[in-house]
Structures are given as C-alpha cells and as structure tokens.
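Ticket #4471: structure export looks truncated?
Reporter: QA, pipeline team
Priority: medium

Steps to reproduce: submit the single chain below to the structure queue and open the exported record.
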Amino acid sequence: MLKRLWLWLGRLLGRLTLLLLVVGLGGWGIGALYYASKFSGPVSSEEEIPPGEAELTRGIIDDAIRIVEAHRDNTRVLRGAHAKAHGCVRAEVSVLADLPGTLRQGVFRDPGKIWQAWVRFSNGNAYPQFDRVRDARGMAIKLLDVPGEKLLGESEQDFVMFNNSVFFVRDVAEYRSNFAAQAEGNRILAFFPGWDPRSWEIRHLLIALRTLAPAPESPVRTTYNSIAPFKFGPHNIKYRVVPAESGCPAYEPPEQNRDMPNFLRSTLYRQLSLDRVPACFELQVQRQNPEHYMPIEDTSVEWDEDIAPFETVARITIPPQDFDTPEQNLFCDNLSFNPWHALPEHRPIGGINRLRKAVYEALSTYRHERNAAR
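Actual output as written to the record:
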C-alpha cells in the first residue's frame, strides 16, 4: 500500500515537473519572440524628447533631496548615489598614439596626448554600507585643465560609469515611478506598480538584481560602462573602461577579509600605497549602428557588441600613491562628477543623460551649500 502511494506521488511530481518545464520553456519562447520583434532596428540616431519630461525631472529632484536628507551622516549631506568612496586617486589618461582619424574627437583629438586626472571609485548606494553587501560599483574620471568651452562651464571633462552595461529603467518616465516607489520604501512597487501584468517590469527587475552584484576583488579589477550614450564628434557612442591585460605589472591582490566594512578601500590601498604597483585600464568607445536596435532613449537595452565592437581610444594609468589621508578623503568627498562637465564634442544624449544634468547639478549645489564646502 505504502509502496503504491510513493509510486503514485512520484508519478504526480514527475508530471508536475514536466508541466512546469513545458510552461517555462513556452513562456521563455514567447518572451524571446516578443523581444525579438520589439527590439529590432532600425532606430533613430537623434534624440527624441517626450512631452512632460521636465515636470517628471522636477519630481525626481524632490525625491532625491528627500533621500539625501534621510541618509545624512551626522551633519554632512552625502551624495544622492555612490555615497561611499573607496578612494580618489591621481591618474594619467593617455590618448593612443595610433588612434584612427575618425576617433580623433574632443579630448582624444591629439594622438599621444596625456591628461592628468582624478579617478573616484565607489559603491552605488545612497548610504554607506559594508562592501560585502550586493551593490553597484562606480568609477568616475575627471580630466583636468581641458581647454575649450564646456557645456556646464567647468574646466574639466568628466566620464561617469558603473559596473553594468545596461540600466534598470528605460527612460525618465519609468525612472520617476521607480524612484518614487523606492523613496517611499516600496521596492516591490518599483517594478510591479499595479495589478495589471502589462505594467510589470520583470526584465528590468532582473537587470537591477544583476547590477547589485557581489563586490569584486578590487575596484581596479572590474569593468565599468557609461550605460547612457554620448556624442563623440559626429558619432553616437557608449563608453567602457576595462582592466588592461598588458603593459602593466602583473599583480594578484591578497585575499581580503570580506567581513571588514571597507575591504575594497583596503585592497586598493594595499596595491597602490603599500605594494606600490600601478593599475591600468583601457578607455573604449562603442559606435551606434542605427540600422540595428541600438536605441538612444532606452538605457535598458544593450548595444550588440558583435555588430558594434568596442574600440580603444586611450589608456588609463593609476600610479603608486598615498591616497588614504584625511585631507584627500575630504577633497574626494567635495569633488563633483557630472557627465555634462564636457566639451560639446562629448555631449551626453538620451533621456537618462538629460535627467542627470538636472539632478546632478541640483544635488551637487544642495550638498555643497549644506556642507559649506569651498
């Protein structure tokens, strides 16, 4: 009797498993066909600004200031995102000596040119937390003493990147609803705003989960992406920074105690300040091919690298240095990075970049005024 019961249960579980497998594969197939039809070219090579974007942006700024105030560190106002730095380090950005003519644009117009720069490595959260917590990781680069009129009147050229190739929202409208839900502490509503399944953003939830990754071995041993597109002279491009595999001394960081709150800063300090070993990256661009689905206004879509391969335009070298001092940490905290600190040849494009211009500028002004930074 008991044997027959177990056999019956086994057959039932087997059939249920087979049914779930068939349903899962069917759903995956339908989804693949849907996205293949939806994500097909050609696309526009120009920006397309939807109505109401300015009003949505004002609402996002209000929510961002509310979050910044909620995460105040005693008397200091922190950044609205990437609040925790692993360090700001001096670097040199060298334009390739044999750069092709079509890629000689803006700060890359002179082959062999070497720019002095600051590089800030960070965690993505708006509140400093242990490095072992799953999080986005950021890299911001500021080229110094760049001549020419800038879009925001600064003397620097900034590049702002983080460790995923896509963003978990497509445009300003979705960012507004997603961010508002998170500001209220309703993270589920950020991706499931209502009972209608058509409003659910499961693909974007998966992107967000992939972005919140375990910490890398070191801030200098991971890849960073611009996510949003930019002008590059006549081209539309995305930026990427990858660790250089050649031309830099081989270095294997010692295993870190991941229970320590700041082990990413520790491993960076160990390499640059104690072991005196430089770190190297390549700065690359990916040119849009508008005949394929490489949209400007949707940052949740990855541009196909097989169709549009990345091309190296410069090399970043971070020399050995002592960076972890109270004075430099305060200097790092007061630095502002904005992709609109740029030459017109590198103008940010697309909705998320238009949003960045307003939000970054508003939060930077607010933060510096509240902190009385000079």
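Status: closed, not a bug. The export was complete when the record was re-opened. Leaving a note from the reviewer for reference: Residues 70 and 157 are 31 Å apart (CA to CA).
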